[in-house]
Amino acid sequence: MLKKERQAYILHQVNLHNRVLSADLSQEIKVSEDTIRRDLAELADQGKIVKVHGGALSQGYHFSLNAQQVYSLDEKKIIAQKAASLVQDGMFVLTTGGTTIIELARALPPGLKATFFTGSLTAALEYMRHPSIEIILIGDRLSKNAQLTVGGEAQARIRQVKADLCFLGTNAIDTTHGLTENDWEVMQIKKAMVSSAQKVVSLTISEKVNTAQRIQVCDIHDIHTLVTELSPDDPLLKNYIREGLEVL
Amino acid sequence: MLKKERQAYILHQVNLHNRVLSADLSQEIKVSEDTIRRDLAELADQGKIVKVHGGALSQGYHFSLNAQQVYSLDEKKIIAQKAASLVQDGMFVLTTGGTTIIELARALPPGLKATFFTGSLTAALEYMRHPSIEIILIGDRLSKNAQLTVGGEAQARIRQVKADLCFLGTNAIDTTHGLTENDWEVMQIKKAMVSSAQKVVSLTISEKVNTAQRIQVCDIHDIHTLVTELSPDDPLLKNYIREGLEVL
DNA sequence: TGTTTTTTTGCGGGTTTGTGCCGATATTAA
DNA sequence: TTAATATCGGCACAAACCCGCAAAAAAACA
Predict the structure, then answer these.
(1) Which Gene3D superfamilies match (chains A, B) (predicted)?
(2) Cβ–Cβ < 8 Å for A173, A100
(3) pLDDT at B66
């Protein structure tokens, strides 16, 4: 069997079954696993498949629906960078969704071994591109507005977790009303996250600092750390430091 | 034998078998391999065949250039169309993930009011674009291979549901081994879905019919309906009708 | 017909490609 | 943690390839 032929066959199998094992192919085509591995590597270089340990996956599934233009992306990248530094190996981390969280996902160091809990589809999709973190998806009814699972079941699951960290993509925060939201169901989810985490981190672009919305998620003192794109000594953040928050 | 004759013969052989080996031809026509090679090179220059190391392939065989699209999309659209007609207002529907299921999501009639349960991120994302269906995300650990939630928790949640319908994006099916998979964790999820649904529907492009993989999900008789892109009276499907399956 | 010219072919070499094997390392699962 | 499995890098060997040349064959021509 010619090399091209073999590779065509392999590509076909991958597209057909989404996943193939080198060992299976080797037995099927009667060539050594090394050869299969080399074929898979070549096909992966050409971008036709995705190589994984032990075999390969089809490319078709593996593109994420990204590239939506993000509002004030640069600021969010700075926030993400700061926030990522808080995550240590072995931690359990709760996160909401939103564009800032997605930037956080991208900013995680490649070798990190931690477990992320989220009810956000887009966040989960982004976490999946990371090679070594584990992802626990929180199930329940999917809110089309929030792109997030909401409901009692989700809250119950969140409360089961004893998380080290909780990252909240924040819509509005000020010292008198605390962290506020405009969606009842999202509020409930965030509330559950706040109460399940040792340390609560709010990721907020400075534009949203000192603004409030209708529904309170938690008091300002329930937040331990505030991350913005500004320097910690920026006057805008003085109030929060006075209230005892750590500001990055 | 004249050069022209020989090349005509070679071209004929290539088109007939899709591939030829220089060594074989050399022996067959009783000329040196160098001559064969030169012939193949000429034919390749004229664009009549594709030269590869060791021989040559026919034109059609080398169609691989950047098929970034979903594999056999048209077939899947037909399947999706047929499957969508099974869903009625008010139904509870369990589904796996995969490209065929995504096509199903796109084929659902806009006014449909039903509840879809899935552990697949990509499927959930597609369902979210539908205006009126409700989506319940099944939570648990996200398998990066399968792009699906897997694990005991997910299985337990699935078993809680009394679903009317279950759509399985199917990897391999045949009458003796039933529905088979290549991933242990995915098998468990599908198994749970099969046992929780009144009616189990397997969505399978005909290429996968009568193939098997390593791990059995369920017996052929646990499947009630088989949907392929073929007409129900296609001979390939006769066996399944004989086994008592409904074939669409 | 015989001779010259052109084309085609086979062969000897050195080079490249494809494959399998082995030992060292990395990754995964229990 | 350990054990099992997969991967990587290097090596070896055979098969295929390329190049140049000269013999052979075919074609052209006197």
Answers:
(1) 3.40.50.1360, Winged helix-like DNA-binding domain superfamily/Winged helix DNA-binding domain
(2) no
(3) 47
Q: Is B64 on the interface with A (CB under 8 A)?
A: yes
With an 8 Å Cβ cutoff, is B161 touching chain A?
no
pLDDT at B200 > cutoff 90: yes
Closest to B118 (Cα-Cα) out of B88, B150, B89: B150
CB-strand contact A247/C, under 7 Å:
no
What does CATH list as the number for B3-62? 1.10.10.10
Q: Which of A3, A4, A121 sits opposite B121 (nearest CB)?
A: A121
| Equal CATH topology for B3-62 and B73-247 | no
> Helices (H), strands (E): how many in chain A?
9, 15
Res A129: pLDDT = 83
**Token pair for residue A31?**
């060539």
- Write out residues 29-48 of B within 8 Å (CB-CB) of A: none
- Residues of chain A under the 50 pLDDT cut: 64
| A53 and B CB contact within 8 Å | no
What is the per-residue pLDDT across A59-71, written as a single tens digit (0 to 9) for each? 766 554 555 566 7
Q: What is the pLDDT of residue B183?
A: 87
User: Given B67, B138, B147, which is nearest A61 (Cβ)?
Assistant: B147
Residue nearest C19, CA–C1′ metric: A35
Residues B140 and B151: beta-carbon distance below 8 Å: yes
Instruction: Give the nucleotide nearest to A55 (CA→C1').
Output: D6
The fold for domain A3-61 equals Arc Repressor Mutant, subunit A (1.10.10)
Nucleotide nearest to A54 (CA to C1'): D6
Q: Which tens digits make up the pLDDT trace of A106-138?
A: 899 888 889 999 999 999 988 988 888 999 999
Note whether B20 and B55 are within 8 A (CB): yes
CATH of A73-247, one of 3.90.1150.10, 3.40.50.10470, 3.50.50.60, 3.40.50.300: 3.40.50.10470
Question: Any idea which residue has 């879809």 for tokens?
Answer: B116
Strand-by-strand arrangement of the B172-174 sheet: B172-174, B178-181, B215-218
pLDDT tens digits, one per residue of B6-18: 999 999 999 999 9
Residue B59 pLDDT: 85
pTM of the shown model: 0.86
